[in-house]
Amino acid sequence: MKKRFEYLIPSKEDGKFILKDADTGLVRTDIYVRDIMLEKAVENGQCIKFDNESQRSYRKPMSVLDNNKVVKEQPVVDSRIMEDPVLSFIHNDSLKLKPETLVMQDLKWKYLVRSAMRGKNIMMTGPAGCGKTMAAKTLVKALDRPDFYFNLGATQDPRGTLIGNTHFKKDEGTLFSESVFVKAIQTENAIILLDELSRAHPEAWNILMTVLDEGQRYLRLDEAENAPTIKVAKGVTFIATANIGSEYTATRAMDRALVDRFIIVEMDTLSKEEEAKLLLKLYPDVTPEQADTISEIASMTRAEMISEAPKLSSAISTRLSVELAGLLSDGFTLEEGAEVAIYPFFDADGGVDSERTYMKQVVQKYCGTAEDEDIFNAEEEEEQY
Question: Average pLDDT of 82-100?
Answer without folding.
Answer: 86
